[in-house]
Structures are given as structure tokens and as C-alpha cells.
Amino acid sequence: MRQGKRPRTSQLYLTFRRRALASGSGRLASGLALLATLALTGPTATAEESALAQRGKELSRQHCARCHVISPDNRMGGIASTPSFMILIKALDDWQDRFQTFHVRRPHPAHVRFVGDAARAPDHPATITEVILVHDDIAAIVAYAEQLAREIK
Ligand code: HEC
């Protein structure tokens, strides 16, 4: 599922920075810091938005990628019968609404619940290992889908 995963910008930045500091080049390090900041935030999103989207991407990898292909870099992941996030965004006009409410749309109620919800009734077991979210996770996942939409549309 994680095959072919490219190193994250922040990891690349840390590697560069360690090298730059080792060679005593502070100016190179600060130039790279600026580049890394620009790469992370992109031209349209604010830093805060893209941090949220980054969290959403991690959550999607962790909780959604076992069924959905969640980004162009795990195209071979997921389950073929489950629509990829890219397809959902491209094909559905109301994809934002659907990402906001996926947890009540089938098949998700069979495995998603929120921290603080009552445990599942023993006669309604989860169909797969449960996904347990906090409500703020939804905003992060939606922010990630919005970032993905800007990338692919
Ligand atoms: C157990 C497999 C599975 C997991 C895990 C899963 N999904 Fe899905 N999801 C599906 C399937 C299958 C569909 C297509 C349902 C359909 O066509 O009726 C779907 C559809 C969707 C849709 C479109 C819903 C609609 O009614 O149009 C969204 C949005 C979505 N998933 C988001 C997510 C997110 C976000 C996560 C992770 C937090 C996630 N899914 C985790 C299987 C899964």
C-alpha cells in the first residue's frame, strides 16, 4: 500500500538541513527553509490550511487507504471495487458534501465511529477493524480532499 511513497518535503528538508549545517552553511540552510516553506504551502493554500490537509492525508492513509486509493501516489493500493478519492472528486459535483458526511454513508457506518460514542452493540460488530475518529478529523480529511481537487482538476 505504501510502495513507491516519495519522501515528504519535510523529511527532505531535514536531510538537506543536516547536510547544510554540517558544512557550516547557514545561508544555504535558511534558503532551503524558505524553499521548503513555499513547497509545503503552495501558491494558494495558507500554511495553516496545508498543515490541516497534511493531517487529513495522514488520516486518509491510515483509515481509508485499505479500501480507497487516496492519492495519485498509491494508485495500486485500495480495493478495485472501491472508488478512488480522485474519481469521487472528478465524478461527483457534490463531492465536498459527501466527504463531510462519508461516516453516515454506506458502507462506513459499519466500521466508523467517533471517540465518545457508545461501543458497538455485540450483535452489530464492525465489518472490519474499527475506525475511531474525533470530529475534527473530518475537517482535516475534507481539507485534504480540497487540496487533492486543486492538484487534479
Ligand atoms: C471498508 C472499506 C472502506 C473504508 C475503510 C473507507 N471507505 Fe469510503 N467507500 C467505500 C466504498 C465501497 C464506497 C462506495 C460506496 C457506494 O458506491 O455506494 C465508499 C464511498 C466513499 C465516499 C462517497 C460516498 C457516497 O455516498 O457517495 C466517500 C466520500 C468516502 N468513501 C470517504 C471515505 C473516507 C474519508 C474514508 C476514511 C476515513 C473511507 N471512505 C474509508 C469503502 C470504504
Automatic annotation (TrEMBL):
Keywords: Heme, Iron, Metal-binding, Signal. GO terms for molecular function: electron transfer activity; heme binding; metal ion binding. Transmembrane segments: none annotated. Residues 1-47 form the signal peptide. Residues 51-149 form the Cytochrome c domain. It comes from the Bacteria. The keyword Iron applies. The keyword DNA-binding does not apply. This is Cytochrome c domain-containing protein. It comes from Stappia taiwanensis.
